[in-house]
Write the structure tokens for this entry.
Amino acid sequence: MSLREKGAITGVGETAYSRESGRSVLSLQLEASLKAIEDAGLKPADIDGVIPYSGVVAEDFITNLGLPDLRFSAVTPLGGASCVAAVQCAVAAIAAGICNHVLIPVGRNGASGGRIGMRVQQMPQFRLVGEFEMPLGAIAPAQLYAPMARRHMELYGTTSRQLGEIAVSTRANAMLNGNAVMTKPMSIEDHQASRMISDPFRLFDCSLESDGSCAIVVSGAERARDLRKPPVMVMGIAEGHPDSPSVITQRPDMTRLGIAKAAPRAFEMAGVKHDDIDVAEIYDCFTYIVMCQLEDLGFCKKGEGGPFVESGAIRLGGKLPVNTHGGLLSQAHMVGMNHIAELVRQLRGEAGKAQVRDAEIGLVTGYGDMGDGSVAIMRRG
Amino acid sequence: MSATGTYNKLVPEPTPHSAPYWEGLNRRKLLLQKCCGCGRIRHYPQPMCPSCHSTEVEWVEASGRGVIHSWTITHHAFHPGVRDDLPYTLATVDLDEGVRMLAQLRAVPAEKLRIGLPVRVDYETVKDGLTLPYLVPGEPA
């Protein structure tokens, strides 16, 4: 059995994104959840599955939303690859007949609460790094991921300006979005002038840390057709784990992420080719991670990500518009759930000024921890 | 850096699997796990050999020599304890034994950094009971 066309995204909901919500993470998630459920044309009582993100548990949703009969709960702990992996988990549970409508909420006080450098020290997936690398001064993702980017630059001639093109393009898209934290224009010169964090990553190569919540509802394909909005069908979906998943230092090929294993599975399941993809929402914790995924997904060859983005391919109006909402770099860091929400809007024709004309098929990815990957290909239903 | 005074950096919490590694550093030796089942050398320390699934290991002393695989130069203090070290270079190194290590690289200016640059390991005791490795330029093989 394949998960092809077994499930659909039927609802999306977002809170306002900010640097200081002034509210609890649970209250943010409940707001986004109610919006997603309403967007789907469902009632909270229709939700019979939930896949919560860290810090909040299934019981919180039963208690607050008044869910009478939750039949499925799970967690997908893949860091930033969790959200797309959760969709895979939800579609699998629905296809197995366990439940009908799965709520997947993400929310955080990522700016006003604990910051990333301190947060990762507590995560079990960072245990080896915590013992063997953090005491030597390699503490935060920017530092742990930078050697991947540096090696790519040394092997393939990739430049900081090419990474900057990703930041600039993403910012331009954020400016079309009414719910983006970053609202000032950015030029390549602004990127080049931004302070160095961990070479080659400058400040504008790094994603935001944000407060807010984004939630989606995944429903069975049959039921999805009767709901309020046109369903966004999941055509192909997969997760992939890199070699040496706990430490990048020991990875045989440092320029290859887990998504390189997942992408062929997702494309085969979907039965589409790269040229069929009208829009792509690519997890962008750092500019380089976008470039590496574009290569690992097969949109260009390994090492050609720099020239690919420099050509304008990922801009709105380009060959493959990427992160049309402004991404983690400029809209908000919602662990990539905002990427899924944006793809749904694009495929419904609800993306406003950032709408890719006639977008019918799109792709969304997740990237997490030390290189876990997830990818979904979806179509307008 | 002195061995006295308040040490305010992150410190490792050794496990039964890694304790010999940290004890080795205290004796200024870089020790690696060698599988008793198939002879594969692995790093970082972990309980099981991914090739033959043996849990028996012997600890072998590494040469301490290797070449740069990649690097980053950190300019931002992600922890208060590293503020006075900025900027510092973190190098990923291919050790002669076929595994990699990561440590701070000293005495190499940014413009000299390149893949394949020979380096060697040295050691410093940063506090009682904790010795850390760092890297310095090495001789070509």
The longest strand of chain A covers residues 211-220. The interface with chain B takes residues 117, 121, 128, 130-140, 142-143, 146-148, 150-151, 154-155, 195-201, 247, 249-250, 254 of chain A (CB under 8 Å). Residues 224 and 315 of chain A are 32 Å apart (CA to CA). Chain A has one domain: 7-113+208-380.
